[in-house]
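Technical annex, item 7. During the second reporting period the consortium partners agreed on a shared format for inverse folding records so that results from different sites could be compared directly. Each record opens with the tokenized structure and is followed by the designed sequence. A conforming record, contributed by the partner at site C, is shown below for reference.
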């Protein structure tokens, strides 16, 4: 797919159509941009859990083990 870049101030921007955004699973205006072997790779950002979410998931996952340890 060949796309035209758009001038934005002193920079250039790439407009992604709705079809492309949907295909990529983009739900916000953020993109993960990486450089790999001379290519620019765009992907949906990986959402990282905050500490509280990770702790809650851990407590649920290991509830039985924690209960047995407390006896």
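Designed sequence (site C submission):
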């Amino acid at each position: 797919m060949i796309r035209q870049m758009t001038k934005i101030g002193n920079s250039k921007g790439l407009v992604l159509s709705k079809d492309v955004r949907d295909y990529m699973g983009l739900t916000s205006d953020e993109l993960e941009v990486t450089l790999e072997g001379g290519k620019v790779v765009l992907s949906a950002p990986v959402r990282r859990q905050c500490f509280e979410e990770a702790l809650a998931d851990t407590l649920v996952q290991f509830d039985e083990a924690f209960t047995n340890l407390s006896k």
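The chain has a mean pLDDT of 89. Strands lie at 5-8, 11-14, 32-36, 39-43. All partners now use this format for quarterly exchanges.
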